[in-house]
């Protein structure tokens, strides 16, 4: 055996060189693969770019869809609002038309009522003038006839002779009272009325006697005792008739001759000339 055989050699074994070569080959292959991948890279870059851009397109589409939906909703609200406004305007127009028609109807009714009132008033005034003219004529006629008859009856019924002037004065006063009372027939009855077109019972009697310059008490109770009590069978025109007790009478009237009286009876009949049989009085007083 050689002496140098046991001295280790400082050279690397071949196996290591093979491993290095293998490693170098693997490395070269890997780099080649990378190079190939790098060469193929540009051809595949476009699909990758498109894939990246897709979310952006989808996002823009979603925003546009949302804006379109909002615009559609706003349009629907505007249409609904316009419809409400049109309906309100139509209703207001109908109400205005109805109100105008009602106003025209009321105005026509008012005009008709005013025309009817004017016509009725004119007719009433014409009737009143005719009645007053008739009363005036009646008063003149009655004054003349009652004055002459009163003079003769007064002279014949007197228990003692009296002067002609005295008989004339009494008869003239009675004639004036009777004429005035008859001239008021048809006037209204109003409680507390003292004329000229409305009376109560004592107001009419007091006014009639005032034409003969005789002042009577205002109320029927006092008028029923204002003169001398006379029998109902011995009445003369101008005597005061009363109903109820003397001093407590509730109604009075004026005897106008021929068994009749004139009095302001009540609100239903007004001032009337009636027969004593219509409502028999309780008593009478003579003031003249």
CATH class of one domain: Alpha Beta
What is the CATH homology-level superfamily of one domain?
A: endopeptidase domain like (from Nostoc punctiforme)
Provide the low-confidence segments as ranges. Answer: 139-170
CATH topology of one domain: endopeptidase fold (from Nostoc punctiforme)
Q: Reading side by side through the largest sheet, how are the strands ordered?
A: 3-8-4-5-6-7
Largest sheet: 6 strands, antiparallel
Q: What is the helix fraction of residues, given as a range?
A: 55-70%
Mean pLDDT over the residues: 75
Reported CATH architecture of one domain:
Alpha-Beta Complex
Provide the gyration radius in Å: 66 Å
Q: What's the total count of β strands? A: 8
Please describe the structure with a list of short key phrases separated by commas or semicolons.
two-stranded parallel sheet
Describe, in plain words, how this protein is organized in 3D:
The protein has 288 residues and is α+β, with helices and mostly antiparallel strands. It has a domain at 116-153 and 162-286: endopeptidase fold (from Nostoc punctiforme). The chain has helices at residues 14-157, 164-183, 201-210, 220-223; strands at residues 188-189, 198-199, 228-230, 240-243, 251-257, 260-266, 270-275, 283-286. A six-stranded antiparallel sheet has the order 3-8-4-5-6-7. The protein has a two-stranded parallel sheet with strand order 1-2. Helix 1 (14-157) packs antiparallel against helix 2 and helix 2 (164-183) packs across helix 3 (201-210). Mean pLDDT is 75; it is low at 139-170.
């Amino acid at each position: 055996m050689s002496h140098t055989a046991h001295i280790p050699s400082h050279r690397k074994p071949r196996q290591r060189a093979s491993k290095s070569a293998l490693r170098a080959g693997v490395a070269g292959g890997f780099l080649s693969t990378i190079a190939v991948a790098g060469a193929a890279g540009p051809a595949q870059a476009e699909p990758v770019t498109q894939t990246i851009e897709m979310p952006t397109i989808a996002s823009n589409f979603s925003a546009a869809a949302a804006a379109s939906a909002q615009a559609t909703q706003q349009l629907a609200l505007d249409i609904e609002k316009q419809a409400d406004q049109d309906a309100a305007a139509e209703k207001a127009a109908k109400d205005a038309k109805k109100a105008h028609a009602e106003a025209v109807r009321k105005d026509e009714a008012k005009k008709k009522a005013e025309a009817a009132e004017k016509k009725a008033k004119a007719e009433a005034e014409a009737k009143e003038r005719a009645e007053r003219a008739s009363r005036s004529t009646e008063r003149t006629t009655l004054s003349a006839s009652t004055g002459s008859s009163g003079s003769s009856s007064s002279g014949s019924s007197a228990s003692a002779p009296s002067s002609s002037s005295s008989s004339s004065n009494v008869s003239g006063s009675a004639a004036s009272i009777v004429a005035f009372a008859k001239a008021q027939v048809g006037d209204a009855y109003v409680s507390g009325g003292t004329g000229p077109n409305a009376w109560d019972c004592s107001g009419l009697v007091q006014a009639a006697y005032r034409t003969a310059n005789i002042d009577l008490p205002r109320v029927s109770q006092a008028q029923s005792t204002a003169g001398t009590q006379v029998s109902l069978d011995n009445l003369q025109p101008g005597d005061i008739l009363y109903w109820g007790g003397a001093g407590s009478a509730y109604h009075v009237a004026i005897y106008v001759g021929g068994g009749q009286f004139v009095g302001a009876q009540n609100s239903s009949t007004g001032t009337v000339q009636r027969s004593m049989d219509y409502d028999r009085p309780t008593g009478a007083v003579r003031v003249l």
